[in-house]
Amino acid sequence: MRTSREKGQASPLYIFVVASLLFLALAFFAVGQAGATRNGAQSAADAAALAAARESRDTFQLQVGDLGDLLSGDLIGDVNGCSASHYYAGENGANVDPGGCDWVADGRWGFTVKVTSQEPVGDTVLPGTESQHARASATAVVVPRCSFDPADDDTAPSPGALDCEGDVLDVDPSALPDMSDLFEVRLAED
User: Fold this and answer.
1) Positive or negative, the Cα torsion across 73, 76, 77, 80?
2) How many domains does the chain have?
3) Which listed site, 54, 119, 142, 173, has its alpha carbon 20 to 30 Å from 21?
4) Residue 40 and residue 44: Cα distance in Å, rounded?
């Protein structure tokens, strides 16, 4: 038989458990919010790096004599595409860090871009998140889709043939292929 002193003993425990669960739910929400901000920054970095590499590829002035070296990787594009990275980072809610867009340093044709989210994580139950911005970086490279086989004879009408994923075609020096047909731009795993 219960005594009157035991009545209502579950109420403080119930309140503690509910308050603890509520705090945990808010903490998980804060972690999720931080993750979403980080994912947004990563998307902005990816878009900015791809834009820089694509800009460099698309504005490269292709010359017939450069085909072999360009497609073999001995020659890389010399056009800096970083201006495009700033636009695409901004369109995706981030800013390119000062000095945050640069050529890939290992000899590949590409760019590494570092960004910071424009908006902070926000006010959450976790202290200090209201002013924290997400940071991310990405690298995009320009890679050949084709290989070049130079002509055996210097007097031949074509300087050689391109093999683009199984399609072989003779190069017409007066109508060189578009750079986007010769090279693709993709994110690198750096």
Assistant:
1) positive
2) 1
3) 119
4) 6
Highest mean pLDDT, choosing among 39-43, 86-90, 170-174: 86-90
Residue 120 lies in a domain: yes
Q: Is residue 4 part of a domain?
A: no
The residues pairing with 166 across neighbouring beta strands, listed in sequence order, are none
Is the distance from CB of 159 to CB of 139 less than 8 angstroms?
A: no
Instruction: Quote the crossing angle between the two packed helices 82-91 and 10-58, to the nearest 10°.
Output: 150
Strands 135-144, 167-170: parallel, antiparallel or unpaired by DSSP? unpaired
Q: Once rounded to an integer, what is the mean pLDDT over residues 104-125?
A: 84
Cross-strand partners of 114: 137
* pLDDT range class, residue 5, cuts 50, 70, 90: low
Task: From residue 88, give the alpha-carbon distance in Å to each of 50, 55, 81, 95, 103.
Answer: 9, 12, 12, 9, 17
Any domain includes 1: no
Domain of 91?
9-188
Closest to 85 in 3D by CA, of 46, 59, 52 = 52
From the list 121, 98, 102, the residue with the least C-alpha distance to 41 is 121
The separation between the first and the last C-alpha atoms of the chain, rounded to the nearest angstrom, is: 70
Instruction: Specify if 146 maps to a domain.
Output: yes
Q: What is the pLDDT of residues 117-132, one digit of tens each?
A: 988 876 655 556 667 8
Rounded CA Rg of the chain: 28
